[in-house]
UniProtKB/TrEMBL annotation:
It is a multi-pass membrane protein. Signal peptide: none annotated. One of its GO terms (cellular component) is plasma membrane. It comes from the Bacteria. Gene3D superfamilies: Phosphatidic acid phosphatase type 2/haloperoxidase. This is Phosphatase PAP2 family protein. Pfam families: PAP2 (PF01569). InterPro entries: PAP2/HPO, PAP2/HPO_sf. SMART domains: acidPPc. Keywords: Cell membrane, Hydrolase, Membrane, Transmembrane, Transmembrane helix. One of its GO terms (molecular function) is hydrolase activity. Its main location: membrane. PANTHER family: DECAPRENYLPHOSPHORYL-5-PHOSPHORIBOSE PHOSPHATASE RV3807C-RELATED, SPHINGOSINE-1-PHOSPHATE PHOSPHOHYDROLASE.
């Protein structure tokens, strides 16, 4: 299976960014940000949204429960889309670049997680949730998008994602929420 898209301006920028960030990965602030970014993993996002939806439903807040169902739907759609992309494109993670000097992009490829850099699933989930929250509760748009952006960017110092992986994840999340809005609007 061939290697693709490894010599272009975007890839060169990704590699420069990864090399610039790598020496600072253990800095206290970056490490804390990376730790906090784990909140944007699928399990915490699904658990949080489902728990809030159940609580809203049980408390009689049906409109809020419906909005939270929209959040769950956006998250589920983002997860499906990013999983499809990860199965279609295998990109080595920055950690392989740092540890072994490997940077490759292939169509389809290895099932090993060290080859699932593109797109960032954390960024996809964070963006989908932020967009759904912003649509359902417009007053929360700015904090939702800021949190999603900061937590998504924090994936880069971990050595798990290049900047374009994060950007692709954000795009996946926004597209997913837009699809869900057409199928299951945040408000009737």
């Amino acid at each position: 299976m061939g290697t693709y898209l490894t010599d272009n301006p975007l890839t060169r920028a990704d590699l420069r960014a990864a090399r610039a960030i790598h020496p600072h990965r253990h800095h206290g602030f970056l490490q804390a940000a990376a730790d906090w970014s784990e909140l944007t993993d699928q399990e915490p996002l699904f658990a949080g949204a489902a728990g809030l939806m159940a609580l809203a439903w049980a408390s009689g807040y049906r409109a809020e429960a419906r909005k939270l169902a929209h959040v769950l739907g956006a998250l589920a759609a983002a997860t499906l889309l990013k999983d499809g992309m990860k199965r279609s494109v295998a990109r080595s993670r920055p950690v392989l670049l740092h540890d072994k000097g490997i940077h490759r992009v292939r169509l389809r490829g290895k099932k090993d997680k060290s080859w699932h850099s593109l797109p960032s699933g954390h960024a996809a989930g964070a963006a989908a949730v932020a967009a759904a929250v912003a649509r359902a509760w417009p007053a929360a748009a700015l904090p939702a998008y800021l949190a999603a952006g900061l937590l998504s960017a924090a994936r880069m110092p971990t050595g798990l994602h290049y900047p374009s992986d994060v950007a692709a994840g954000v795009a996946v999340g926004l597209v997913a929420e837009g699809i869900v809005q057409r199928l299951w609007p945040a408000s009737p």
